[in-house]
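Quick one, tokens below. Sequence please?
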């Protein structure tokens, strides 16, 4: 799973001094800088688990609606009983990985690219993917006056959120499959890949500095509200129209020390996804209410309605698609061949799913042995 703010400019300037792996796959595409907003929910009724508090991180984004809704409705806290849920929000994958490594959070909702990068950079020692959260919600939207067909993308300026992020990798792979050439690092070639922070993309589109964007929701729908048209939904490029956009990860130390707490958070996530499925309109409103609380502004109906429809909420981490996304990054020259063995531990998730009468999910042979 790619900006214009000062923090990102510094990181790109420093990238030349780092190995390729360190610069590739560095964010989920929701921003270049962390914006923390710590909230501690009141403990629910019930016994305290093995930890007083569990610190959970997620993004202020619709593709993280499992966390948004689970937090807003108290569904995760309910499973934790007397152990308190402390939530922190982020705008960028690297910041969330740093927080996990520092112990500032214990569990995080995050995209596949920073999950891969965090795991490989630590040589498999810092995190595990323990569950899925969301699939889809990524679109290629374009200026209909300039681009009418997929072939018209050639020669145009198309934004992705950040160098090496999940959407950047997907777009570079799509370009390659069209037979076009683009230098992954500079973004120059048959298509101009313009790395543009999601919050900046609508203004960049209005000014004409980009002709379209390959971006996650709700940015795609925000651009459509400015006159853009959806040219391609990325889900159509994947088997069964499913690909991971949000995982649940945990610190390996916290998983070892507090498996009961991790299980409770996972159970809350599973129950939240079930509630979202059974109550889509209420869930959409709940996610928007949480976004308003966090950002000060709710999404307009013309943005949230189409965005919500394009996201599937799933307990399955869709492990095979994470492997494919890593392969795409290698193919683009943004990642050295990674060793992802052991990145998943779905033991607790499958225990919960079995108890709920749901089918177990697979780790694509990338699980702990």
């Amino acid at each position: 799973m790619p900006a214009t703010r000062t923090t990102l400019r510094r990181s790109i300037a420093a990238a030349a001094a780092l190995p390729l792996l360190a610069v590739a796959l560095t964010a989920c595409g929701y921003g270049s800088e962390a914006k923390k907003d710590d909230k501690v929910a009141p403990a629910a009724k019930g016994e305290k688990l093995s930890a007083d508090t569990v610190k959970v991180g997620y993004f202020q984004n619709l593709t993280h609606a499992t966390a948004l809704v689970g937090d807003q409705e108290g569904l995760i806290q309910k499973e934790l009983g007397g152990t308190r849920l402390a939530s922190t929000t982020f705008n960028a994958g690297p910041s969330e990985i740093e927080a996990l490594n520092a112990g500032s959070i214990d569990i995080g909702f995050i995209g596949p690219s920073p999950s891969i990068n965090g795991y490989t950079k630590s040589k498999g020692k810092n995190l595990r993917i323990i569950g899925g959260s969301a699939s889809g919600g990524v679109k290629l939207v374009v200026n209909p006056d300039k681009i009418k067909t997929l072939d018209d993308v050639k020669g145009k300026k198309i934004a992705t959120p950040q160098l090496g992020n999940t959407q950047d990798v997907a777009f570079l792979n799509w370009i390659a499959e069209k037979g076009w050439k683009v230098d992954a690092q500079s973004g120059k070639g048959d298509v101009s890949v313009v790395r543009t922070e999601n919050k900046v993309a609508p203004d960049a589109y209005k000014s004409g500095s980009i002709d379209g964007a390959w971006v996650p929701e709700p940015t795609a729908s925000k651009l459509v509200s400015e006159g853009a048209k959806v040219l391609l939904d990325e889900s159509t490029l994947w088997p069964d129209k499913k690909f991971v956009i949000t995982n649940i990860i945990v610190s390996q130390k916290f998983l070892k020390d507090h498996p009961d707490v991790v299980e409770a958070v996972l159970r809350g996530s599973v129950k939240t996804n079930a509630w979202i499925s059974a109550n889509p309109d209420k869930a959409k409103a709940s996610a928007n209410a949480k976004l308003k609380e966090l950002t000060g502004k709710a999404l307009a109906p013309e943005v949230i309605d189409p965005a919500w429809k394009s996201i599937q909420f799933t307990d399955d981490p869709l492990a095979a698609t994470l492997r494919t996304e890593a392969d795409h990054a290698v193919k683009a020259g943004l990642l050295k061949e990674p060793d992802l063995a052991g990145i998943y531990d779905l033991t607790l998730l499958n225990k919960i799913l079995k108890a709920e009468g749901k089918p177990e999910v697979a780790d694509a042979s990338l699980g702990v042995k």
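The longest strand covers residues 127-136. Residues 1-34 have pLDDT under 50 and may be disordered.
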